[in-house]
């Protein structure tokens, strides 16, 4: 079976081996088609995404040449898959025929969407979110440059952080703070102004019996907000701080 990874370096997987997608422009074209899997992407859109304002002369022909090379790679790896993955010429553009479930980004989105179903119990929710969380392998679109790739990477980073927060919340609800703390701390340090990450980290520290560290983290976050944005903590984090503080006083 052929699968594609976008949530990290772009990779084509065939069974247990990785197939090289080609040079950077070709990877950008394939990534653009994978983002819009099984939908027509116009040639103009592909050119804008890959080259921006620096499109080459006769850009449509240059694009067609790159698509032809990508198609050749897919044809070679798809022989054992019944040719189910291929690039189809459409009027004014191209369509990559592929099951979105075979692309990590679309699978992660589907899992995160299903986890938001209010009818699920916490065990069902955490199972879905664990799978979604595991699909993110590092910087999305790694190795692909250009304005479109940068903007897309920024949007996907937000999706990633939202998935991490949802996953951490579910793990904490099933009393699993130890699996949460390290990844959530790393991200909270990398994105210090995203308060939801700090909230999850503080909750994990409290659940692990480390309230003093939790309080310190609240204060560090408050200072960062004051320095960077001139604002105070969100009401949720302030309430959490007061709850921990009062809990310590009661314990004393």
Entry summary:
62% of the residues lie in helices and 10% in strands.
Explain this structure.
- This protein is mostly helical and 252 residues long.
- It contains ten helices and six strands.
- The chain has helices at residues 24-35, 43-51, 59-77, 104-115, 122-135, 147-173, 177-190, 195-207, 211-228, 235-251, and strands at residues 2-5, 11-14, 17-19, 40-42, 86-90, 93-97.
- A hairpin with a 2-residue loop joins strand 5 and strand 6 (93-97).
- Helix 6 packs antiparallel against helix 7 (177-190), helix 8 runs parallel beside helix 10 and helix 9 (211-228) runs antiparallel to helix 10 (235-251).
- The longest helix is centred in the middle third of the chain and has 27 residues, at 147-173.
- The N and C termini lie far apart (60 Å).
- 31% of the residues are buried.
- The model has no long low-confidence stretch (mean pLDDT 89).
């Amino acid at each position: 079976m052929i699968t594609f990874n976008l949530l990290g370096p772009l990779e084509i997987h065939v069974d247990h081996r990785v197939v090289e997608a080609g040079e950077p422009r070709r990877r950008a074209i394939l990534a653009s088609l994978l983002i819009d899997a099984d939908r027509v992407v116009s040639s103009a859109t592909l050119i804008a995404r890959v080259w921006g304002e620096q499109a080459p002369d006769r850009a449509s022909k240059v694009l067609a040449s790159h698509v032809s090379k990508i198609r050749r790679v897919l044809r070679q790896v798809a022989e054992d898959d019944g040719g189910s993955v291929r690039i189809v010429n459409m009027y004014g553009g191209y369509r990559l025929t592929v099951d979105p479930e075979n692309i990590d980004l679309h699978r992660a989105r589907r899992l995160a969407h299903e986890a938001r179903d209010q009818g699920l119990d916490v065990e069902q929710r955490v199972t879905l979110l664990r799978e979604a969380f595991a699909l993110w392998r590092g910087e999305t679109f790694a190795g692909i440059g250009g304005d479109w790739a940068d903007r897309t990477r920024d949007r996907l980073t937000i999706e990633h952080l939202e998935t991490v927060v949802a996953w951490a919340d579910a793990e904490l609800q099933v009393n699993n703070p130890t699996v949460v703390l390290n990844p959530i701390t790393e991200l909270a340090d990398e994105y210090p102004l995203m308060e939801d990450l700090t909230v999850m980290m503080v909750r994990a520290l409290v659940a692990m019996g480390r309230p003093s560290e939790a309080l310190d983290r609240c204060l560090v976050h408050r200072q960062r907000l004051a320095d960077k944005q001139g604002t105070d903590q969100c009401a949720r984090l302030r309430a959490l701080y007061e709850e921990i503080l009062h809990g310590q006083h009661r314990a004393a």
